[in-house]
Specification:
- It holds the Pfam family Rad51.
- It comes from Plectus sambesii.
- This is DNA repair protein RAD51 homolog 3.
- It is found in: Nucleus.
- By secondary structure, this protein is of the alpha/beta class.
- The chain has 9 helices and 9 strands.
- It is globular and about 75 Å long.
């Protein structure tokens, strides 16, 4: 203020943002989910795996975690009208579950369904090989290889801006080895979380799977199943889905945590 006059300063020039604008940006970044190719699961997740978020599937072996990852990887290539985002995928495989035969079968099935339902729209449909050429895989045999691959993701994405989905199946596999101390384990996990958050901030969907372990309740000694990486890790995930079988041996999914689902 000078000589009794009030000067108005542009708030945006000082770095201020309106909450409404930020909210709209979040909606725009996450309004094109990637289909898991499981209709019921997609409906529960409001369309599928959200961009700009860390998505986690937890469950015992045989619950379909890797199947969901591969189906989502295939979906990502297709345009929004076919459940994808027209992007590329990085698939970090720590358990050796990635299968090119299964990927090919999934692609064949999607293309058949599309051609069946869109007989007059077959022009421009990608080939199986062209889709597989957009999925970059990295097989990690130990924790060192896994952390190295994850820390290299940002540089990889810089060189390939079409990447819209990063999958780590599973994040818990190599953390079951012995560590020198819990601090080392926590530091390693925190470093990984930093990378995942940076990828999500760029509008990339991060999809990880987590194993389960048996824990014992204090006092009672009763056992229960819990995610392998513990409670602190779970706080970093935007969306968490627990896969299990019910009393009738049916596969079920419980949306354990999600700001987008009521």
């Amino acid at each position: 203020m000078e000589d009794g006059k009030i000067e108005y300063v542009d708030a945006e020039s000082l770095g201020f943002r309106l909450a409404a604008d930020l909210y709209q940006e979040e909606l725009n970044a996450n309004n094109r989910p990637i289909s898991t190719q499981c209709p019921d699961l997609d409906n529960a997740l409001r369309g599928g795996i959200l961009l700009g978020a860390i998505n986690e599937f937890v469950g015992q072996a045989g619950m379909g975690k890797s199947q969901i990852c591969m189906q989502t990887a295939v979906s990502a290539h297709f345009p929004p009208g076919m459940g994808g985002v027209g992007g590329e995928v990085v698939y970090v495989d720590t358990e050796g579950c990635f299968s090119t035969d299964r990927i090919k079968s999934m692609i064949d099935a999607i293309l058949r369904d599309h051609l069946k339902n869109n007989l007059r729209k077959s022009d421009g449909i990608p080939s199986v090989n062209s889709i597989m050429d957009t999925i970059y895989t990295y097989r990690c045999l130990d924790l060192v290889q896994m952390t190295s691959a994850i820390h290299g993701l940002e540089s990889f994405v810089d060189a390939r801006p079409k990447v819209r989905l990063v999958i780590v199946d599973s994040i818990a596999c190599h953390f079951r080895q012995d560590f020198e101390g819990t601090n080392v384990r926590s530091w390693t996990l925190n470093d990984i979380v930093v990378v995942f958050r940076r990828l999500a901030a760029r509008g990339i969907a991060v999809l990880v799977t987590n194993q389960v372990t048996t824990r014992f309740a204090q006092g009672t000694g009763s056992s229960y199943m819990a995610s392998a990486l513990g409670q602190s890790w779970s706080h970093h995930c935007t969306n968490r889905v627990w896969l299990y079988r019910d009393a009738e041996d049916r596969r079920c999914a419980h949306i354990f945590k999600s700001p987008y689902c009521s």
